[in-house]
């Protein structure tokens, strides 16, 4: 199934280390609002899974977003909102609260804090990861020092999870 992805210039958000959540020191979180039109006659989660996989982002899952502050220090993550809507705080307690809704995509560089504050009853999120890195779940102060060492070692993906090799992620996450 070939799905049309709207050409969206992403919103970028940078967050500072708050002592619990390191965030990423160089790369911003990207949000593509309304990037993926989701027709009523298809499984919206399958649409995200197919697009992410076609661009090399795999190990996908279907669920929601944890209701506690957490981050991943050894891998980047993409979140596609397949159904419903949620208020999510990105960047830790001093970060930014955004409403995400069906068709939106958020790409979180390693270290980016996220927490669902509220969500609709039908909320369904598809998450996926680039082909390298190791999934971990960090949420305690004791993990912070190690995370500061591992986050910079997680390399830039070769492809944007939505737009592939020509996607905005490659410029936003330049190695410089």
UniProtKB/TrEMBL annotation:
Lineage, top-rank taxon, reads Bacteria
Annotated coiled-coil positions are none
Q: Which PANTHER family match?
A: BLR7373 PROTEIN (PTHR36448), CUPIN TYPE-1 DOMAIN-CONTAINING PROTEIN (PTHR36448:SF2)
Name of the molecule in the record:
Cupin 2 conserved barrel domain protein
Q: What is the lineage of its organism?
A: Bacteria, Pseudomonadati, Pseudomonadota, Alphaproteobacteria, Hyphomicrobiales
